[in-house]
Here is the input.
Amino acid sequence: MVHTLRRIISSLGYNEETYMQALNDSVIVSADNAHSVHPNHPELSDPTNKVFMNKGVVIKRNANERYTTDAISEAVIINACEKAGVPYQYYTNRSNQRGGGTLGAISSSKVSVTSVDIGLAQLAMHSSRELIGSDDLFYLYNAFKKLGEYYGLGNLFLIIYACANTIAQISALVFSYSSSKSTSDNKRLIASAPEPNSAPVYFEIK
Here is the structure.
């Protein structure tokens, strides 16, 4: 990631100093979703940091830094939300339950850029029937649009996000297909394994 950013800066005719200034003036927006309070299992949500669908953009915090939000990055997204007239809410995992990570934590570990983890409240995450609130889509759109204006990008910020999200989804599908194919191949090998005390059978793994 660092090498890619350096190559971009270099191709535009800028030097190392400009690269360092660009990092200082940048922010990573890791836009994943957050677990909404489940109507059948409200006890799984943190009692003081509950998020609900159609209640606005979710700002995600984690003391163990599985989310990258800090005071500075939080202020950036709050400023964008307030200027856009968008409601926001806070999400934190229950202290006795381990939560998942995001690309924000991975990215910020590779390059020193201020990062914030946000998203939308969602039910049935990672299932075939994920559910979000229709109002939240417009809230996030308006927040992103205002954030793009702040950094002088306008709607380009939305285009970049859409392209990055598309690439991420395609990558996830490719990885999922590759992983399932590997699992299927392993199952075939297991299914064709010989019975105990029978003559040995050798498999060729390509």
Summary: The radius of gyration is 22 Å.
